[in-house]
Amino acid sequence: MARLPSTAPRPPSPSPVRSAALLTALLVGGLWGQETVDQFALGGSLDRYGILPRDPASVWHVLTAPFLHYGFAHLIANTGPLTVLTFMGALRGVERFLAATLVIVVVGGLLVWLLGRGGSVHLGASELVFGFLAYLLGVGWWERTAPAIGAAAFALFLYGGVLWGVLPTNPVISWEAHLFGFVAGLIAAALLHRRGVPRGRGAVDP
After folding, report:
1. Model-level pTM greater than 0.90?
2. What is the Cα gyration radius of the chain?
3. φ and ψ at 80, to 5 degrees?
4. Most buried of the four, 12, 154, 157, 186, by CB within 10 Å?
5. 16-193 to CATH, choices 3.40.630.30, 3.40.50.300, 3.40.50.720, 1.20.1540.10
6. What is the pLDDT of residues 151-167, one digit of tens each?
7. Which residue(s) pair with 51 in the sheet?
């Protein structure tokens, strides 16, 4: 006997806006929860899990450093741009945005570990801020659709001024995390959004 196709209605998938808002709330809320515990219960001891360049014992800290801060003032400075850029990036698709975040954390962090100033501990979500900004700019470049270009232009309008942060202008700020986070964001956009190169007319398969 042939099986009849199911007529049960499928549950509606969550809207992109709702999914992006949920992801943003989880990320920002998690950072604030972690910093609150660190400051009031652990005395700031989690800061030792920042990146210490070229220290073999701290190479795995590339996974923790972007989610740590030197106190609430540091976290407050990152919260605004991180919230906006996370939401904008997640609107492009939560799964791809999570993949982009992984690329930014790993590639950007490893570059800081390899090339950052020795004797300094590098941490903070500014690596993500610069990475997400670069990701949105890169998506606009690679996709070249009206929504992607519009998002890139809006992100550049809001936060283009922070790009000065990739320069070594302040010795107490990890400009390396800014620079390499930005580079990693561009790499993530190219890996996840670059269109395949079209074949020329008349080309044959080898």
Report:
1. no
2. 20
3. -60, -60
4. 186
5. 1.20.1540.10
6. 999 999 999 988 888 88
7. 122
